[in-house]
Amino acid sequence: MINKLIKTMFIVLLSFTALAEQATSIQLDILNLHAQSEHVYTSGQPSQSDFAKLKALGVDTIINLRGENETSWSEQEVVKGLGLNYYPIPVQSKADITLENATKLHNLLDQQSQHTTLVHCASSNRVGALVALYHGVTLKKPIDDAVEIGKQWGLKSLEPVVREEIGQH
Fold this sequence. Notes:
There is one protein chain. By secondary structure, this protein is of the alpha/beta class. The protein has a single domain, classed as Protein-Tyrosine Phosphatase, Chain A (Alpha-Beta Complex), CATH 3.90.190.10. Helix content is 51%, strand content 11%. It has helices spanning 2-26, 48-56, 75-81, 99-111, 125-137, 143-152, 159-168, and strands at residues 34-35, 40-43, 61-64, 85-88, 117-120. Strand 3, helix 3 and strand 4 form a beta-alpha-beta unit. The termini are far apart. The model is unreliable at 1-18 and 20-24 (pLDDT under 50).
């Protein structure tokens, strides 16, 4: 059992190392790009050319938390043009940090669990906010624990909004 666990951890470490080596050779420079698991990455806004690079690295699903009016180009057109899956969950203001949106994100990540997925907003702050909210309300984690998980996913300035929203539930 322990040998199997060690072997699995080694394989996961190798896959992260391989992705990191590929990312270096492909010159991927996306704000706050972090691996949350073997198949889930979070970041700030990728550039149009970054999506082709992400595809080359094995990312096949994009979840965008930005609104359509936040870029001067259509992310959906770029992503779908590359043959990638694209799912928007517009979180344009503090009012959109809701349990409904947090649940949508969680459900999408569950549905896409066999795919390598990038979840992004402008900086990853909204990503972390929805993750923290889901952990605090749905998974009933203590607020401080939920916020800490959210910070691992990019939560920063929206922390007071998350704490207030969790407190209301």
